[in-house]
Design goal:
mainly alpha, elongated
């Protein structure tokens, strides 16, 4: 298997993980807005915390990106994932804002 094929497989894996975390984050946001706080909300928070720990351990770098780096020397933000470059560049900021918003709503729901 050549490096281009390996990179495509890593990009596919990274994109699938990204889609999974989109489901997690947007379920969390939906649940707190709809006031449907259930066990899945807490599972979502646990998964997000786990992702945060992994990013902290790898110095804000996704480990999948480190794997992809073996197969590409591209400087593009989306070299390792099938996303538009602007979204890959701002991904952490966008989703951090969404998660923090959901957490603030969750606190509000729990306190009222």
């Amino acid at each position: 298997m050549n490096d281009d094929t390996k990179l495509r497989l890593v990009k596919l894996l990274h994109t699938l993980i990204w889609v999974f975390f989109n489901v997690v984050i947007f379920y969390l946001l939906y649940a707190v807005i709809a006031d449907k706080i259930d066990k899945w909300v807490w599972i979502c928070i646990g998964l997000i915390v786990l992702e945060g720990i992994i990013l902290a351990v790898f110095k804000k770098m996704c480990p999948v990106t480190l794997i992809a780096r073996k197969y590409s020397d591209s400087n593009k933000d989306n070299f390792d994932i099938y996303l538009p470059n602007w979204l890959a560049r701002h991904n952490k900021l966008i989703y951090t804002i969404i998660v923090l918003t959901a957490i603030l709503i969750l606190f509000y729901r729990l306190l009222t």
